[in-house]
Amino acid sequence: MTTTKSMNVRGEKLALEEWGNLIESLHDEKTDTALFNIDDKDDREYDAIFLGGGAGGRFGSAYLRAMGGRQLIIERWPFLGGSCPHNACVPHHVFSDCAAELMLQRTFGGTLWFPPMEGVVTSIREVVDLFRRGRTGPHAMMNYQSKEQLDLEYILNAPGRIVDPHTVDVAGRRFTAKNLVLGLGARPQALDIPGSGLKGVYSNVSLVETLDYEPSDTVVVIGGSKTAVEYGAFFSATGRRTILVVRSECLKLIPDAEIRGYVLDRMKEQGVEIWEGSEALRIEDDGEGRVQAVVVRTPDGEKRIETDFVFTALGEIPNSEMPAQALGVEVGPRNEIIVNSRLQTSVPNVYAIGDLIGAPMEMFKARKSGMYAARNIMGFEAHYEPKDFPDFLHTHYEVSWLGLSEAEARVRHRNVVIIKMPPDNPNGLNAALPASDRTMLYAMAKPHMSGYQKLVIDGDSRRVLGAHHVGYGAKDAFQYLNVLVKQGLTVDDLGEMDELFLNPTHFIQLSRLRSGRKHLVDL
Amino acid sequence: MTTTKSMNVRGEKLALEEWGNLIESLHDEKTDTALFNIDDKDDREYDAIFLGGGAGGRFGSAYLRAMGGRQLIIERWPFLGGSCPHNACVPHHVFSDCAAELMLQRTFGGTLWFPPMEGVVTSIREVVDLFRRGRTGPHAMMNYQSKEQLDLEYILNAPGRIVDPHTVDVAGRRFTAKNLVLGLGARPQALDIPGSGLKGVYSNVSLVETLDYEPSDTVVVIGGSKTAVEYGAFFSATGRRTILVVRSECLKLIPDAEIRGYVLDRMKEQGVEIWEGSEALRIEDDGEGRVQAVVVRTPDGEKRIETDFVFTALGEIPNSEMPAQALGVEVGPRNEIIVNSRLQTSVPNVYAIGDLIGAPMEMFKARKSGMYAARNIMGFEAHYEPKDFPDFLHTHYEVSWLGLSEAEARVRHRNVVIIKMPPDNPNGLNAALPASDRTMLYAMAKPHMSGYQKLVIDGDSRRVLGAHHVGYGAKDAFQYLNVLVKQGLTVDDLGEMDELFLNPTHFIQLSRLRSGRKHLVDL
Q1: Residue A506 designated active-site
Q2: Could you point out which of A14, A111, B92, B172 has its C-alpha 20 to 30 Å from the C-alpha of B73?
Q3: In Å, how far are A175, B1, B23, B131 from B157, measured between CA atoms?
Q4: Are A157 and A19 in contact (CB under 8 A)?
Q5: Cβ(B238)–Cβ(B124) under 8 Å?
């Protein structure tokens, strides 16, 4: 495909609303008009062309530009920001917000101002439509900010074709640069069983792009990690029977066993069926090219589930084929482009960033790898390897963690002290603490649903080794807490902090209750 | 009043549920049976008697006990934890959660799964009743944790009478200690105008203790600071006309002018009427001892508001009368007991902590002042003065802040750089960012409601001077971010952190977009 039509937006200062209208018209009409935002007055050679304007390309460009360099983003979509605001993290958060809302509404249905929800199935399609209408807003912000505030150069709505490590053709023009930065992202791994091409089989990408009917009352989710659970919790919250078909164990990535147990128990309590050790064998056609049923091998034998809606979440495959073919960059076993800690590929002057270089396929890594590539390109040697980062996922809840699990800590340290809420007690989780924002009604009426949290401490050094939280409102805190933990945060430091009560993480005040002791003990 | 009946709970290991039942029976029946949890096997003299088992007394006791000392709490209520879980921060959070929920439900009423809410007035009384039933849970946890986990000694459901700095009489027994720690808290300042004693005039305390009818469709709130706004936002969210009668300016305590403007605009958008420069003159009797109307002097003349429900939030008055009379401790102009930075009063061996020593009447100060009193009592000189702490309040939103406002920063620094979201742009706040948990539906469909945030930076040193956030899910983070800011956090440090996207505070990624620049500029 060669894009030939073009529009020069350089001289115009489009407002957010105007950007929104332009993006929608280009996206909806699938026109191939390329948008050029090139600074013709700058006659310097580009320091880098960023192929792909997702998180990595945009942040890498911003950083390189901030350092005084010249950059060009080439992006096939009519907006910057990549898959996140279009079909990944933003819709995921929309669905997770709906799951949390619906769980609350169902739990209190028929009381207070909540309508009875027994047997009510709510629309999936309306939420997808809401997101589809709403996503242009963040898209517009990315384009606006990148042009008016960050002073970036970019060409949108046009795929680039790599000619060599310094040359890219796009929309009938040729651009050269000292370096090429590949930020082409990843795509959902496709399900490869009979019937996986039928209408009614979705990934997170195709769901928001193509859903055009209301799924019936049963959903099959294939996968058991972050994306599978995040979407599965939402489908379940809509009132549909939801079965997670998980090859091994669900949410293995949650490091702490008690936390994982709490998370899974709450999912099951909401009605999510988790079929571990199971595998989808085939999807049956209804005779008109649509899904009619899924056949699953389970530890109890084969089962057939009638449904018209299958959601697959099998991980992501880096889009490395095109650059591998064009440039011969080295590619790893999972289709990822191999880079060193300077983000350099096997081909001189070619860098790769973001999901394209493999795990962890997280936003911070995409953005920071772009930033580090920019530093190296601008002559400042800088090494980046993501490690010791905090992590999170959504069920109907937010689940956040950092550092070591209790079991991991016990392997490495002889004197591990645990502070948790609720504590071990004869009434178990039926304890009206923890409580904080968004869990107050649970804390008052359904205590066991009000969350669970744990701090893992080395009793000898008094240092915090790990922190784990299920509830709401702690995810943001884990970003900053993680920095403090890496600095060597102790239980005594925590005890000296100023809590904003009722704080989602009760770590500060719980630590204070114990920190007077020379010899720490559990709480 | 002398309590004579008593029950010894020392030998029994009551579970949470048993504690709950016991507390309810004592509280509801208003029996004067004192609960004794005294370690008769410990023949040491008490290092301290804590008079009052609220946040300060309980944390001070826990810390002193953890240091190896012996303590005794004497508390008039049948539970530890004080006013917070009984009628202050916990119900406040319940009401604020309801306000946020109801705003969401009204905004999306009639769409998705939300019922139409136009004209619907929801019950205040049912939420009060829910809280009243639920509050025993946290009470039970405090008693359980304090006895079984923290090994504290306490006497509950019995007021103590101070004999001298070493002696307190309670429930017919006399106890002596090396020191006395006063933690008697504060009470709502009473409204002092004609009619303020009528039925239908409430404070946060009397509301949850005595509300026994459903307020009609108009609410008058007298006050314009944290408590007034937190409860007023809830009353408004129930669908009632809600008028805040504010003597000077509403929410003056929010330091940043733009943030304050956003907060007030969103309250007004929800229908809250804010009458600044106004004063309630008298409350009219309906002839049967109930409120019928409030007469208010406003900048536009006197107005009469018909209502049967008035909520007063005029601040808190320390309960210093009894100790002042019994001991002669020095008391300040706002009824607060004067202490030095070691928490010592003017009387040797008598300490005072918590709300009793005046502003800031915040949970962290109550607890930390207890902890520091314990250190001093145990022979470790320790000085405590709350300063540079983060702060927050609720409207329908969470509002969090730390450090300097933009205006404060511009007075002290010549080169202030602002990073905010949404940024200044021709479409103003109608921008679909920020977005994160609990604001996703707004971000998609009502962008201007999705929050507002600002980072204030010294462009020369690159240090963060202040942070400000309106939205949800950032309050917890401000606890830890505040520590980092006090350490000297820079925009470059922020850019190196690992965000958990979509993070409520977009500070990390926004900083990264600018941190490549030698000379910082606004974003």
Answers
A1: no
A2: B92
A3: 81, 12, 9, 21
A4: no
A5: yes
